[in-house]
């Protein structure tokens, strides 16, 4: 079976985009830990809810960054692939 | 797409023009930004007229109360992030930034493509924050802003420098990535599910991807800008 080089690069790029999104594991675990700790903190001190919520959301948004980097790479590999132009 | 599925997530160019030998386009982002700009300007003019006509001896009307709530919330958010000393002078910029990013993120509800899902827009916002950080750093710490890069030991200078340069990139990529992921998910849902499911089901996803995620990311962008800027003041409150 003959595979043209374009098809090979495109297929491998799609695989790479899929594998790259495994990075979504890390932010998921991190945000889960942050939400759990936030819930525990609200349970221990319900009066401090107004302080805890913004801090938790800010921390979760920062933890999300690595996942978004991998998302940007996956989008670039699928829709604006730089490797195809190198052929 | 060859399979007959209409999946449109990119920025489309509508009007082509040439400038300095480059081919440029008026894109969906420009059109949507123009619509948001006009809407916010009209809102601002209406608010200004309402405030000028307000009678201080009577109870304020509904519209005036709405404006007062918005301004009060944005001012208290800025003062909470930057402190009582510097907060009031930044309230104008931070409030404008908040309203602009919120309207941009919510544009997906009106069938527009959110302008913040274009990296050109978010990088510009991140660069404004970057300039504000270093302008205030030099204004309040003078030369200490440069020598701060050599602390705690001089060999960490390259790492500190990369950390400073990464700030605008990370906050702009965070906003861009979140809004783009919502846009992609909504485009996939609209393109792939059968027509009879389009009646109510995408509304649930719009609430999460546009309203919830958009509002959270707006808050995070403005809060992180304020955290970075307040680091540049370097004084004990």
N-to-C series of helices and strands of chain B: EEHHHHHH
Question: Could you estimate the helical fraction of the residues of chain B in percent?
Answer: over 70%
Give the DSSP E fraction of chain B (strand runs of 2 or more residues). Answer: 5-15%
Order of helices and strands of chain A: HHHH
- Give the terminus-to-terminus CA distance of chain A: 21 Å
Cα Rg of chain B = 21 Å
Bulk shape of chain A: rod-shaped
What is the CA-atom radius of gyration of chain A, in angstroms? Answer: 20 Å
In CATH, what is the class of chain A? Mainly Alpha
Overall mean pLDDT of chain A: 88
> For the largest beta sheet of chain B, what order do the strands appear in spatially?
1-2
Residue stretches of chain B low in confidence (pLDDT < 50, at least 5 long) are none
Number of strands of chain A: 0
Main beta-sheet annotation of chain A: none
What descriptive keywords fit this protein?
heterodimer, A: 87 residues, mainly alpha, F1FO ATP Synthase, 0% strand, B: 237 residues, two-stranded antiparallel ribbon, 6 helices, 2 strands, globular
Provide structural commentary.
The complex is a heterodimer of chains A (87) and B (237). Chain A has 87 residues and is mostly helical. Chain A has a single domain (5-86), classed as F1FO ATP Synthase (Up-down Bundle), CATH 1.20.20.10. Chain A has helices spanning 5-20, 25-44, 49-63, 65-79. Chain A is rod-shaped, with a radius of gyration of 20 Å. The model of chain A has no long low-confidence stretch (mean pLDDT 88). In chain B, strand 1 (13-19) and strand 2 (22-27) form a beta hairpin. In chain B, strands 1-2 form a two-stranded antiparallel sheet. Chain B has 237 residues and is mostly helical. In chain B, 25% of the residues are buried. Chain B is built from six helices and two strands; from the N terminus they run ββαααααα. The model of chain B has no long low-confidence stretch (mean pLDDT 84). The A-B interface holds A 54, 57-58, 61-62, 64-65, 68-69, 71-72, 75, 79 and B 9-10, 170, 173-174, 176-178, 180-181, 184, 216-217, 219-220, 223-224.
